[in-house]
Each structure stands twice: as structure tokens, then as C-alpha cells.
Amino acid sequence: MSRAQHINSIAGAVVGPVVQAHTVTAETIVLHAHDRRLPVPRQIPPPARTWVDRAEELDRLDSLLAAAGATRVVVTGLGGVGKTCLAVRWLDRHHDRHPDDVLHIDLNGWSGHPPPTTGQVLAGWLRALGVAADDLPGNVAELTALYRTVTSDKALAVLIDHARSADQVQPLVSATARGTTLVTSHQSPVTSHQSPVTSHHRLAGLAVVGFRTLDLDCFPAATEAALPAGLLDGDRRPIGHELLRALADRCHGHPLALTIAGAHLAAHPRRDPHD
Ligand SMILES: Nc1ncnc2c1ncn2[C@@H]1O[C@H](COP(=O)(O)OP(=O)(O)OP(=O)(O)O)[C@@H](O)[C@H]1O
Ligand SMILES: [Mg+2]
Q1: How do strand 180-186 and strand 101-106 relate by DSSP bridges?
Q2: What is the pLDDT of residues 26-43, one digit of tens each?
Q3: Residue 80 in contact with ligand 1 by CB distance below 6 A
């Protein structure tokens, strides 16, 4: 059988392994392993377009995370108070501290949507970290062990957003000593009318595994008007400082309320902010 009758040729981009059939004749055979390298995961959401400085809170996060052995912080506070924005900002600022990977998951907290299961989160992260889908173990205990193994020596940042309980968070905490884990969760004030099973109680287990807490508040009066001001672009009717202050007062410095009010004003520039 002459060689000319059996020429295997491949053209174009080839994805996945290639098997050559029939008799392979050559003086040198080079086997190419399939290149599975994925980009380094950088999963945090983009920082807020208009940023009102939270210098004090960022410094506080710095010191909580710098304390020996404490690289785990849970940011708590009312819904819309800016927990996710603060965590994202801190991670963005300290990008160079986590050269290996930055992982993020939204556990859907109080959104009304079901949370992803631990297995789903770990499988997604492991795939992002380069583990082939075929190599993922089938049960959560093994997925957790593999996640810890893969991340054991990484300078890794993990943002676990909108957690309801310590049970959801614990298996997602990497064992690396070079990493940072930030968790966000609502704060449910304990009142005599409420069940004692509030978020504080549900999150209590996190303190046991070394989490420190940062309680976030609304903007102070000195900075609250900056958010709607930043959302009004220069072409719009400029609204004076007094009116911005009035708007901010009405929103009690609550970041989400200020964002909605500012965006509404930007979209309807003729409306009076007192309306
Ligand atoms: N420092 C800030 N500068 C500018 N805007 C901010 C800031 N903090 C929060 N915001 C605005 O407030 C909105 C709500 O913030 P964020 O989503 O961080 O709140 P949250 O506390 O995480 O809310 P939830 O409890 O629902 O998770 C953001 O979409 C953003 O527009
Ligand atoms: Mg949030």
C-alpha cells in the first residue's frame, strides 16, 4: 500500500483530541496534548459607575483583613446599603493581592430566586479553575475536597454574595492561607416579635471559622448628596446643592434609594426633586 493512498490531512481550527486512523508512518511523531488552559478567572461584577467614597469602611476592611489569621470578613447591613459595592470596590482596589484567581457567586439571598446548590457552585468554580467537566466528582464532599486541593496554595479572592446562612458559606471557604474571603449578608435586627432565627444567628457559625464582621450603614450626611449628583450628567438641568441635599435627606442616605432617585431625576430632568 503506497503512502500516497493514505494521507490524513486536517484543515482549519481543531478543538479537542485528534485520532489518526490506519497505519501512521513517519520518522518523527509529535503528539500534541489538548491545551486546556483557561483564562485566569476574574469573576467579580464591575464596580459602581458612580462611586461615593467609603474611605473609612475600606480602611476598616483593610484592617480586619490585615489582622493575623483573619482573611475572612462578612459585610452585613440593610438591603441596598452598599455591601456588594463595598466588597467589589475593595477587591478591585486590591487586585494585586490576588493574582491567581477571583471567584464570585451570588447565593440569591433575599431575591426570591432559589440559591444555587453547593455542588453547583463548586462545580462552576472548579471548571473556571481549569478542572475538566469529566474530572469533576459526583458528590459534594469530594467536590469540596477537590476545591480545597486546587486552591490550597493560591492567592485567591472569593466573594460570596447574598448569603443567608453559615451552612451555605462554609463549604465554599478555601483553605488557603494566601486568600481573602468576603461574604455579604442582610442584617436582620432582632426584635422581641421576631423568631430568634435571624440572619445574625444563621451566620453565627461563620465566627467559629474565623470570620470578622463589618456592619455597613447608610451614607453620612456629609456625603449622601454625592451619589445623585454623580448620576446627573452635565447636559442636564443643573440642580443646586440645596435641592440635592433635600433629595438626599428624603432618602436618609440610603445608597439604593439615592441611586433610584438620582437615576429618575436624570431621566426626567424637568421634575422637581421635591416631587
Ligand atoms: N459607595 C457607593 N457609591 C455609589 N453608589 C453606591 C455605593 N454603595 C452603593 N451604591 C449604590 O447602591 C446600590 C445598592 O448597592 P449594593 O447592591 O451594594 O447594596 P447591597 O447592600 O449589596 O444590597 P443587597 O442587600 O440587596 O444585596 C448600588 O447599585 C449602587 O448604585
Ligand atoms: Mg448585595
Answers
A1: unpaired
A2: 666 666 665 667 899 999
A3: yes
Q: Using the atom order of ligand 1, give the atom closest to the CA of residue 230.
A: 4
Q: What is the mean pLDDT of residues 241-246?
A: 86
What is the DSSP-derived secondary structure letter of residue 117? P
How many A from CA of 65 to the centre of ligand 1? Answer: 21
If 0-12 CB within 10 Å is exposed, 13-18 middle and 19+ buried, where does residue 76 land? Answer: buried
Please work out whether the CB of residue 227 comes within 6 Å of at least one atom of ligand 1: yes
CATH topology for 55-215? Rossmann fold (3.40.50)
Distance 196 CA to ligand 2 centre (A): 23
Per-residue pLDDT, 14: 57
Cα-based torsion angle of the residue sequence 39, 44, 49, 50 in order, rounded to the nearest 10 degrees = -150
For the stretch 70-117, pLDDT in tens is: 589 999 999 999 999 999 999 999 999 999 999 999 999 988 999 999
DSSP string, 199-227: HHHHTHHHHHTT-EEEE--PPPTTTTTHH
Rounded to an integer, the average pLDDT of 229-245 is 76
pTM of the full structure: 0.84
- Say if residues 124 and 146 touch (Cβ distance below 8 Å): no
What is the number of other CB atoms lying within 10 angstroms of the CB of residue 67? 11
Q: Give the span between the Cα atoms of 37 and 92, in whole angstroms.
A: 24
Distance separating alpha carbons of residues 183 and 83, to the nearest angstrom = 9
Average pLDDT over residues 124-142: 96
Domain segments of the chain as ranges = 55-215, 226-267
Which of the pair, 188 or 24, is modelled with greater confidence? 24
